[in-house]
Amino acid sequence: MSKLTRVFVQVQSLYVKSQSYPEKSRYVFTYMIMIRNMSKSSVQILKRYWLITDGNGREIEIHGEGVSGTKPYIASGGELHYTSGIVLETPIGTMQGYYVMVNEIGDEFNVEVPVFRVAIKTHIH
């Protein structure tokens, strides 16, 4: 949650077996993001940052504008849902990051996305 505004992020990840090739060290995952704006003003997503770590400890950083090719607004009390994906060389990994947002009066702030796991369910201990 942001300290300046009340914006919450929930994430759910899923292994995509039909697009994965374990024999080639290719594991595909989707992750579904829900961002809920519980503040009194609308917010806009300007940028995103992800730190992805695979099961071997290899890190990949992603910096990008907006989400899904846009810089969406989320109205007060509203939600934004989107799905994206990653490809890892291992059957388990983690993601974490943040969104850079701006509120109606022009204040920029970060909304943290706490670390979450992407994994084939049979590989979770």
UniProtKB/TrEMBL annotation:
Source superkingdom: Bacteria
Segments forming domain ApaG: 1-125
Protein name: Co2+/Mg2+ efflux protein ApaG
Organism encoding this protein: Candidatus Pantoea edessiphila
